[in-house]
Prior knowledge:
This protein is an alpha/beta fold. The chain has helices at 31-41, 55-64, 100-104, 111-123, 150-159, 190-206, 208-213, 236-243; strands at residues 5-12, 18-26, 47-50, 69-74, 82-84, 106-109, 127-128, 138-141, 144-147, 162-167, 179-184, 264-265, 270-271, 276-277.
Amino acid sequence: MGHDNHVVVKALTKSGKQRLLHLEIIQDANPWQRAADLMREYHVKYCAVEALPNFNQAHEFARAFDGRVFVVNYRDHADEILTWGDRPTDKMTVRPSTDEFKALYTASVDQYKMMSLALQRWAAGEVETPDARTLNPRIRTDTGIRTVMICQEIFWLHLQRVALVTEFPEGHEDERKPRRKVKKIGIDPHFAYAWMLSEVAFARAYGTAFMLGTERPPISSVEGAPPEKRGREERLGDVLRRQHPGLLPDPEDTPLSCGDCENFDVGRNYCTLRKLSVTPELPECAFFIPTQEDEDEWD
């Protein structure tokens, strides 16, 4: 959450799938009041919000819904995907604090593992959505206030603008152990993080074991993928297009090339990511990142 609060509300169906109930970008001087209204309107059992950048407001919101809202901090976990502040696994999990509440209703989340789980929900066909064209709020964008199809135009775009990478930290390439990282591609995909936080809330509601109990196939082997897609990584956009035909543009209709990529050095005809010479007309590769100017309306 930043200047605007991005909200995802979902529920568990009898079939065990998740159903998307509501999406909203709260643009208000006091977005937390609207968030509180949504808590009551949808009878939200558990909610997760990021601690930063609005640290005090996040904890005040959690205090208003005692035991139902958890404030999330990120850290790498060796063996777990998350830990709860009110369920310490050892004596060092919750440290002394002048405000015991702030230590109590918190969650320490491995961002890489949780984002991976959240995105695999879509690849495994575990999410039901209403018609993506039906929720059309008027919101403030870089091009002015206008009506948008929030699910089709923004939510799905944000889901496709995160990447799970393993890389050596810049300036420390000599380190033997690479670091796992969730990388933002082109824009700040707030809804992707909101979707991930909804997984944290689900873990609280139904238990971590339930969340991890169903085996999820890797994206490259999703059942029902077109034959030409098998044997290579199938992007999340391909999954969404297959599950919701006609609602996302097909990249084959608008082919992209190296010249459209953020990593392309125009002056040298060079890919700064893969460290090799390319030409602008070469088709996009698996590492393609759209240029910032094409994406910044939804940043």
